Amino acid sequence: MSDKKSFLKEALASLSNLTRLETNTLVGKYSFNESAGIKTSIITDSAEDRMCSQINLVTGDITTAMTPKFVTEYKELREFHLTRENQGHEIVRQNIAILKEILGALDFFEAESKKTGK
Predict the structure, then answer these.
(1) What residues make up the domain containing 15?
(2) Measured CA angle at 53 (ends 52, 54), to 5 deg
């Protein structure tokens, strides 16, 4: 299998697991998951008040959940959460563009190697 096909196969396998974008806004104390003593990610249900949005990147479905204080008291945090959600969308768009550039570069190098016979 060519390097390009191998890369593409591995990239697509990884991307197939990335069908959900999740944005969380936490208020209060929170905990981390740890691996070998290194904090790796925030445990999202460890905070007393939180807002979470999950976006299915395949279907476009969006689900948002929030604790009562986000409804009644945390207007600014709701707006902040929406901003972060939009930033997440932009990150996904940028990652797709980068993947396209990488594939274009692989095409170029594959064509060049065929020209030179290497």
Answers:
(1) 3-116
(2) 125
